[in-house]
Amino acid sequence: MFGKMKKIQYMMMAVAAMMVLTACEKVSPIGVLVSGTGVEDRVKMSHLYYQEHKEDYKYHQVQDQDEYTFLVGADSHLTTDDGRMREMLQIGLDNNDLLYAHLGDIADTKAEYYITLEDLIDEFRWKYAKKNYKEVYFGDDDYPEQKEYDKFYVYVDTLNDMTYNVDEVPYPFYPVVGNHDITHNGWALWSNIFHSSFYDVFVLVNMDPIQFDHFIFLDSANGTLGEEQVKLIEQGVLDGLELAKELGQQGSAFRHTFVFSHTNMFRPSSLQFSSTFAREETFFLLKQFEKWDADIVFLGHVHKWDYQKNGKTEYLTLDTMCEKNNPDPGDYLVRVHVKKDGTIKWEQVRMNYTPKK
Fold this sequence. Notes:
Blueprint: H1 2-21, H2 39-53, E1 60-61, E2 67-73, H3 83-95, E3 99-102, H4 111-132, E4 134-137, E5 153-157, E6 162-165, E7 173-175, H5 179-182, H6 187-194, E8 199-207, E9 210-217, H7 226-234, H8 241-247, E10 254-260, H9 279-292, E11 296-299, E12 306-310, E13 313-317, E14 330-339, E15 344-351
Parallel strand pairs: 1-8, 2-3, 3-7, 9-10, 10-11, 11-13
Antiparallel strand pairs: 2-14, 4-5, 5-6, 8-9, 12-13, 14-15
């Protein structure tokens, strides 16, 4: 019954979005479908959500650890087969990665695919909660079947003195939005799960002096930042200046910066799409990466691995982890190791799932 109700909910959202936005459907100059709510509206809606919910976000804390790691995947194009996405989340859970980033095109735009995606994330949120928080069961012992349902548990984060219902647990999965996520007016489906098309995340690495590692997630699904997002960047909303001001510090509050974008900036070969960013935006981004002192920029979209370096900044363009595009096992993920002394190393991570016959 629950699955049926969820499908009806998603279908209603998709129909409503289609009625409102059909007239806005567009194709980019290179033939990539980018229909639906445009970047200006997405960023405005996301900024409003951020302003209303920014107190809900807690910093990740690793100041007492010798190392933390994070995992990155791209272009999963999930359908009814959730195998590769399930594998990524399981790999991250098993390795105790601090967070998982995804570089867009997470699912092909269809209501049932987003039901599959949301069910999967809910499942792994529960697994994450059971592994990392104190589990408290409040069901009726006379009904042992209740122990099979997450709604009969709460989870206590003893570090931050917070108690969560399972659907409130801050699961550290951060996807950027891709062009396939917004085709056929898919923004209504995508935003129902992830709410925002951009965000930034802070990892507390030192207390004296206070230092953070900074993770910046950009909305590049339409192959452009758009005026609104550029304005927010210049105002300091996405580059951590608000946090620095709160700390009474400037850039010294940030040790490392990692940036995540769906649209690629470099062309792996003549057979792949080049970046769709306007030349002025490309220059703007390159200057911003220099200003942010970015260590690694992660990119997707072209389904082809590529490595570039410009100044101190490494650019990793990830291959697609989609089982349809890459049916054989391969090194489709990247894990980054960040040491207490500031040393950064990254490695490619193998995925072994093969498609169902």
